[in-house]
Each structure stands twice: as C-alpha cells, then as structure tokens.
Amino acid sequence: MSSFDVAVIGAGAAGMMCAAVAGQRGLRVVLIDHASRLAEKIRISGGGRCNFTNRDAGPAAFLSANPAFCRSALARYTPQDFLRLLAKHRIGWHEKHRGQLFCDDSSEAIIEMLRRECEAGGVAWRMPCAVARVRCEGEAGFVLDTDHGPVRAARVVLATGGMAVPQIGATDFALRVARELGMKIIEPRPALVPLTFDAENWRAYAALAGVAQEVDIATGKGKMAGRFREDLLFTHRGLSGPAVLQISSYWQPGEPIRVDLAAGQDLADALLRAKPGSRQQIDTVLAGLMPRRLAEQWLADAGLAGKRLADLPDKALRGLGLALNEWQLVPSGTAGYKKAEVMRGGIDTRELNQQDMQARRVPGLYAIGEAVDVTGWLGGYNFQWAWASAMACALGL
Ligand code: FDA
C-alpha cells in the first residue's frame, strides 16, 4: 500500500494550492481527483478568464452560519499574496468593475501555475482516481479506498468542493465523509444561481426575456439580509444576471425578493415632475427612464399604455412609480445545481479549527474550499476563499 504524510482529495483550486504548499514544506503529498480533466471549474470560470480574486475580499463578502470563521484565513492570505504568485509565474491580469481581477489571456494560466507549483513540491498524482471511502484508523492515520487500491496517509484534506455543476464532476463527497465521521453540516443549497417562477405566474414577464436593467435588489431580514445594486436579466423561466445571482445566496424558499427597477431613482417623483403641460404619452416618458420593452409591458399590464401623461391622475402615477420602485415577488425556486456557480452551506465551520481547518472531532482530517460553509459573493471571492483556506491548512499540516 502506498503511504504519504498527506492525501489531498480534490485537485481543484483549493486542493492544488494546498498540495503544492504542503509539498514545498517537505511533506510527502498525494493529490487525488476522479476527473479526467484537471480543474475544470477553474477552466470555465470567469467566462474562461478566471476571476481569480477580488481586491476587497474582506469577511463581509462571505456568508456563513459562523461569519467570523473566515476572518483569520482571509487576513493571513490576501489578494495581494495571490498577485505575488501570479507575478512569479508572469501571468498578466486586469481589473474589471468592483475590484474583480481576471487573467489577461485564459484561465488555463492559473491551472498551469498551480500544476507547476505542485511539481515544485514533488506532489504525487492519482488522477483520474475515485475515492470510495475514507477510513479513520485512529493513531495510525487514514486509509483511502480508491479504485486504484488503498492509499495510507497520516493526514487527509477534503478539497472536493461543492455540488454546483455536477455535469463536470462536482459531488457531495466531502459532506458524505464529514457526516460519516460525525460532523455537522449546514444544509447545502445552490447559490449564485438564477431564480425561477411558476410558469403560470411568469407568463406575463416571459416576453421580457433578454431585457437587462440595473436594479437595487434585496431580500431577507437581520443576519440573512442581502442588498445589491447590479444588473438584472429577464429570462424565459425567471430572473438572472449578477443582481439575481448575488441575492440568490441570501434568498430563503417562500420569502419575497424586493426589486427597485429604477435603481434608486424615485419614479413617482420623476413622473409627477414631468407631468405639468406634457403632451407626451406615458409610454415615451417611462421608456426614457428604463428599457422600452420593460416600460411598455408594465404599462400594458397596468392598463395605462397609450395614455397621455397629462391626463393621468397623480394617484395613478404614484401607484405606477411605487410598483416599479418596490416590485415584490416570491420565486418558486432556483435553477438548481446544474446552473449554480457555487453551493452555500457545507461542513459546519464550528467543526473546524479556524487556524488550520482541522476537524475538532477527527484529528488529522481537514476541510478547505467550497466544501466548507463559507460562501463568497459573485466576483472572485470564492476563489480567494479557496486560496486562503488552502494556505491556512497547508501551513498547519
Ligand atoms: P473545485 O470545485 O474547484 O474542486 C473540487 C475538485 O474535487 C474537482 O476537481 C472535482 O473533480 C474533485 N472531486 C469532486 N468529488 C470528488 C470525488 N468524490 N473524488 C475525487 N475528486 C472529487 N469563483 C470565483 O471566485 N470566480 C469566478 O470567476 C468563478 N466562476 C465560476 C464559474 C462557474 C461556471 C462555476 C461553476 C463556478 C465559478 N466560481 C467562480 C466558483 C469557483 O469555481 C469555486 O468556488 C471553486 O472552484 C471552489 O474551489 P474548490 O477547490 O473548493 O472546489
């Protein structure tokens, strides 16, 4: 049976980073992944250019049942640290809006960089290789039952990510192993995902598919309240676009989302100010304040299409403005893991030591990356968590 100091299961963002650093610290490391192509999620991320971090990746941009947990790892490995690694490998990058950093060329550069870092650490690869079970043998460490025979390791790192996009090999492996070993799980759900509506309720809006608009969007109360100003996109089944992906991470089934379709502009006030002496139709005025298709559809539904602004009572204009500024709707669900960018929930962070990600109940077992209940906003935050949690773990192994 082959034997190692550390077995890292999952050769994605967190797993490769952790294996590389642990190997470079002199540990004998094996990195195991069941996929036939390396790091598929990095490859497809950021539209093929990998939004690998965000300049403002502070703890406030992460959701967790235990929000303080991510603080220490994020403070010890920052976006600047990752940029230093890119500089070492001469990888060009640029900033898009809101601190989002992307590769100039392709996300392949990040995969190649991590592969080379693993090589520098003398990491042994088992890939494609499926792990059926992780057996904890107390003082003797762990035995992994793989389809290439058993592997013995003194320490095991679960880095198999979340369940988003099962079509490229995502699984609930980390959650299953954690559960079997008696650890608590925060209920996993698709996040950064489009929201859907019953076909019946959505019929009126389906014609707006393709319309995009900057909005203020909000949901929830107290600790689980989220609010963003981003673009929203109407689709045939519901709502998507960055605004909706962001708010989906905060949305609880049965709860409404609140959308200001004019992103902070008081529409009733704008319509009432435009009214005196106006010869224009309301359609023309409203289409100056939001996408024409959206304005026309909304007015048709409200029975106001084709009316002259000056002929409409103030009460009707106030009602119209309010309805557009405070559109409330209850999604019937999400587009699911097939369309989600991440999984929220995961291994309860109260089960882990925040210094090194080691399981409190199972010494020698570690969990990092998306498998852990730390979920970032859209915009490079999830990779920053993968790098930071991997680094905290690798330095503590
Ligand atoms: P990751 O998913 O990267 O790796 C897990 C690895 O474990 C995989 O290689 C998988 O094959 C392997 N595995 C799973 N089950 C296994 C098993 N049973 N046995 C062996 N191996 C197993 N984030 C961001 O910050 N910026 C971005 O631009 C994007 N863009 C983006 C686009 C799309 C379409 C998606 C789906 C996701 C993103 N993300 C993102 C999210 C980001 O990709 C994600 O959070 C990280 O890849 C998580 O890193 P991990 O290493 O935890 O898991």
Automatic annotation (TrEMBL):
UniProt-listed Pfam families: HI0933_like, HI0933_like_1st
Gene3D superfamilies given in the database record: FAD/NAD(P)-binding domain (3.50.50.60), HI0933 insert domain-like (1.10.8.260), Translation factors (2.40.30.10)
Keyword Hydrolase applies: no
Statement: the UniProt record of this protein carries the keyword Protein biosynthesis: no
InterPro entries: BaiN-like, BaiN-like_dom_sf, FAD/NAD-bd_sf, RsdA/BaiN/AoA(So)-like_dom, RsdA/BaiN/AoA(So)_Rossmann
Cofactor(s) needed: FAD
UniProt xrefs under SUPFAM superfamilies: FAD/NAD(P)-binding domain, HI0933 insert domain-like
Domain of life: Bacteria
Residue ranges constituting the RsdA/BaiN/AoA(So)-like Rossmann fold-like domain according to the UniProt record: 5-394
Domain RsdA/BaiN/AoA(So)-like insert: residue ranges: 189-342
Keywords: FAD, Flavoprotein
Record-given protein name: NAD(P)/FAD-dependent oxidoreductase
